[in-house]
Design goal:
alpha+beta, six-stranded antiparallel β-sheet, 36% helix, 28% strand
């Protein structure tokens, strides 16, 4: 089942204070970017954020799930209404993921 554009826009709006949030459609689903760095996916109207240690420490309850069959587990974000936690998670995850790329 493909994700709805309305859900994607809502999720992106909820995390907009973390940086420049953008999305790109891919195979009926969406990749999510913060400051031009891919930080997650939206599949079947669910938000998935790439797992990091800092992200694990920010989330009160970590739920890991595959965004699609055969994918590595991501953090499944069920509570998009907690904007403060979502923004912190996205911002810190983006910082960590950007640093990992530079080290290689």
């Amino acid at each position: 089942m493909a994700s709805s554009l309305e859900f994607v826009q809502y999720a992106c709006d909820q995390m907009s204070d973390a940086g420049i949030i953008d999305y790109k459609k891919m195979f009926g689903e969406y990749s999510i970017y913060c400051d031009s760095k891919i930080i997650g996916l939206i599949c079947d109207d669910c938000l998935y954020i790439k797992p990091t240690q800092v992200g694990r420490s920010i989330l009160k309850e970590v739920i890991e799930a595959e965004p699609y069959k055969g994918a590595k587990p991501y953090f499944l974000i069920e509570n998009l209404e907690d904007k403060e936690t979502l923004v912190k998670l996205v911002k810190k995850s983006c910082e960590v993921l950007s640093m990992q790329k530079k080290r290689k």
